[in-house]
Design a protein that fits this description.
79% helix; mainly alpha; disordered C terminus
Length: 307
């Protein structure tokens, strides 16, 4: 009879994939009732309340020096304010949920290609080929989607700024990050995100919210489903040694996000776009998977793991 641990490990990847991928479409639903920075302000405030309760129950240690505080605040700001903030602005300006998810899937590729100069990790020509394949697939998706609904250039600019935010945060964490309790790290990170988006909501938006059941449902999903359960599952899988499986899951996010957006938002993906999605997904998988030949060439470096 399988143990409880093995059962949740079987269910966790599918649950994480659905919850994380659904966040793209659900965020677009929320943006029908509130401006981007206002929606993020509400989301982060609710998450901070929940994380604060968890903090006072668990009592995990806080950072002990200013440098650790600064690292957590910076990474939190880059992810919560820049990555999510720019992504929500991209949604507002017409970028499809699946297209945004596909653009964000370039994060592990770009990190892997920058890593040699940043942290001494090796990356080979296979990853460059994967990047090229992913770019071709992404272009196919964008071109085919544009024939149905063309987003603004500004929308794509916001999407790539969001991608830059998550890339910089990841590189910074890889080089300077320290091990902190997940509750502590998330609480500080979301607080940094709130500090980043709240002034923008006050200055640039009227902060009007059309309170309704659909908006309440979207906000609940983003807070509980995305920020608490999905992130918790991700951290639990990593701690259980499921890193390879987690890496594979992320290349499945764009097609699943596109399917959910089609069901919830009627965002149609033409056949050519689905073909591009498959090509891009394969490129991401090729570029980010661990390879024995890469590890063999990297034995003289201080860090042998190729992301």
């Amino acid at each position: 009879m399988p143990s409880r641990r093995s059962l949740w490990l079987v269910a966790a990847p599918a649950a994480f994939l659905l919850l994380w991928s659904g966040g793209y479409a659900v965020a677009k639903i929320g943006l029908q009732f509130a401006p981007p920075m206002t929606l993020l302000t509400l989301r982060y405030a609710c998450v901070i309340v929940a994380m604060s309760i968890m903090y006072f129950i668990i009592r995990p240690p806080l950072p002990t020096d200013r440098r650790s505080w600064a690292h957590l605040l910076l990474v939190g700001f880059l992810i919560q304010a820049i990555y999510f903030g720019m992504t929500y602005l991209a949604f507002r300006d017409g970028v499809a949920a699946g297209t945004a998810a596909l653009i964000m899937s370039f994060q592990p590729i770009v990190v892997a290609l920058i890593a040699p100069r940043w942290s001494g990790e090796y990356i080979g020509w296979i990853s460059w080929g994967g990047l090229a394949l992913a770019l071709v697939g992404t272009i196919l998706v964008i071109v085919s989607r544009s024939e149905i609904e063309a987003p603004s250039i500004l929308g794509f600019a916001f999407a790539f700024l969001g991608l830059a935010g998550i890339i910089i945060a990841t590189l910074w964490e890889k080089k300077f990050g320290l091990s902190h309790h997940p509750v502590t790290a998330n609480l500080i990170g979301y607080a940094a995100g709130l500090v980043g988006v709240l002034p923008l909501a006050v200055v640039l938006e009227d902060m009007h919210v059309d309170w309704s059941w659909p908006f309440a449902g979207a906000l609940f999903y983003l807070v509980v489903g995305n920020s608490l359960i999905a992130v918790g599952l991700l951290l639990a899988m990593i701690r259980a040694g499921e890193v390879a499986k987690v890496s594979t899951l992320f290349f499945l996010v764009p097609p699943v996000a596109s399917l959910i957006a089609w069901l919830l938002l009627d965002e149609v993906m033409p056949p050519l776009a689905w073909g591009g999605m498959i090509i891009a997904g394969m490129g991401v998988l090729i570029a980010t998977r661990k390879r024995s030949d890469a590890k063999a060439l990297n034995v003289k470096l201080s860090k042998e793991q190729v992301p």
